[in-house]
Amino acid sequence: MQDLLFVASKVLWWPLRPGTAAILLGLLGLALLWRGKRWGRWPALAGLGFFALIALLPLNQWIQLPLEDRFSRPATEPARIDGILVLGGAVEQRMTEARGLPALNGAAERMTEPVALIRRHPEARLVFTGGSASLAPGALSEADVARQLWLDLGVPAERMVFENESRNTHENAVNTFRLVQPGPGETWLLITSASHMPRAMGVFRRAGWQALAWPVNYRTGYSVATWMDTSFPVRLQEFEWGFREWVGLTAYWLMGRTDALFPAP
């Protein structure tokens, strides 16, 4: 059942992805107009209108702001940290495999912040969770890339633990809980992108974790410059990321994988 849900999520996301859906809608409208159906102008205008709104309005900011503001980082760092949980999604497996060097994407803070934390907290364990989110995984898992990167950055091998089977946030939470078996009263930080934190916290709580949110990789702000000084491709990509998180929150809640529709601190 888990495999079926994983495949379905990947297959359904392609037509539901806002940019793809807008293109399909526009093509449908053009096909209808070519066949003499005047009402085809409406789907064509809807598809074109979506891209115009992305270009003219900070929709990428509006859709992500509530997600990123949901969980704030604590004002003071805990005096003792027993472990640091790092979710996959920041490494590029295929590029690493092709070039032989650890490659990171726009969520690179997921991988750099834990290194700074573990240097300040010699008592902490560093746990990475991530296999491959692809339907056709390559030779390297995300955990393989993370291990190579952190070893290159000087993190001692004996302080790191890797979970390399999970394909999504739900499996991240369940697999790492089974692997690590955190003790009562331990302090664990959960590191992931700020917009992904509500879903991650809901899922990890449901799996039994009592982790402290430690968001990174913020993509929103409150100044006009932050809202407008972004290229169209980046705006579209970030809007799709935010849309995907809202869809994921709803789907996980309906499946009982998260403790609330919109988890809160």
UniProtKB/TrEMBL annotation:
Transmembrane segments: 12-33, 45-63
Ranges for domain DUF218: 82-248
Coiled coil (residue ranges): none
Entry-linked Pfam families: DUF218
Alphabetic keyword roster: Membrane, Transmembrane, Transmembrane helix
GO cellular component labels: plasma membrane
GO terms for biological process, alphabetical: Gram-negative-bacterium-type cell wall biogenesis; peptidoglycan metabolic process
Protein's name in the database: YdcF family protein
Organism: Roseicella aerolata
